[in-house]
Amino acid sequence: MKPLHTSTITLRSARVGIIAGLAIMILFLGTAPALAARLNEIAYTGCGGADAPIIDDAYEARVVELVNEQRAANGNLPPVKRIVALGKSARYHATDLGTDNYFNHDTYDRSGGIFKKVCGAFDRMRAWYNWTAAGENIAAGYGTPEEVMAGWMKSDGHRRNILDPNFTEIGVGYYKGSGDYGVYWVQNLGARAGEYPMIINNDSPDTADRNVAIYVHGAWNEMRLRNDSGAWGEWQPFSSSFTWTINDGVGEHMISAELRSGSDTHSSCDKINLTTATAVAAPASADYQLFLPLLESDGQQEQALVVCD
């Protein structure tokens, strides 16, 4: 039986004046392999802020897809979006766990035979990400995204983090190369004030179909959209879930949205890679509303393309 340790912390976010439940969970895997040689000589010291190298981007992206599959299968929860800042936070901690050979949510430095706590998990996350709600899952020894997600989902605490409807964004860190367990995984989940992510196809990096499923967080009165750097469509009632048709042509495509309620406006976007040039098929589900790109008609000034992660 795998040893399992969990702890839970509740923090108050003074910025928004609400209490955000921040669950921190720890998951071990059985018998650890012998200590491996260090992957590199980079010193991960202090409370984060340094960018660790990417060991396997596809593994990290796959964990995000699996998280969103679980959220869809358990109460049809909104998907979370993979963002660069949380990815850097998670990757730093996964790398630090392996290179300094410890296993804890808090950040430690090992120097001259002394092992010393530097900062807590949430302070470390703030080095990259100004959260209003945050959570972390860590694991060690699991070989694949599917294995580590299965382990997390079998633990009540980790499962609560993955299925927390308050989280809108995610980053995943994967490290392999040293430490008693050889492989380390970190999930950082969070939400930020004033951020309303758009997610294409549950944050899958690729699609072979030009008709894609969109989810936009938030509650707005109106929205308009566009493909790549093309013309904006007309303003129309807001819908959080719908199907959209991206431009033809193999390669990366971006969908941008402008959202508004009265004088409150926000921009959001996401990108996906089209792997095959295809004819446009009818939307697969009648549950979605199809927005077709239309020419600008309300006389408002064209805005610059939104920068997406």
Can you describe what's shown?
The chain has 309 residues and is α+β, with helices and mostly antiparallel strands. It is built from 5 helices and 17 strands. It has helices spanning 57-73, 84-99, 121-126, 145-153, 156-162, and strands at 4-13, 18-27, 81-82, 107-111, 114-119, 133-140, 169-176, 183-191, 198-200, 206-207, 211-216, 222-227, 236-237, 241-245, 251-261, 264-274, 289-291. A 6-stranded mixed beta sheet has the order 1-2-6-8-7-3. Strands 10-16-15-12-13 form a 5-stranded mixed beta sheet, with no helix packed on it. Strands 9-11-14-17 form a 4-stranded mixed beta sheet, with no helix packed on it. It is elongated, with a radius of gyration of 21 Å. Mean pLDDT is 81; it is low at 1-26, 28-42 and 285-305.
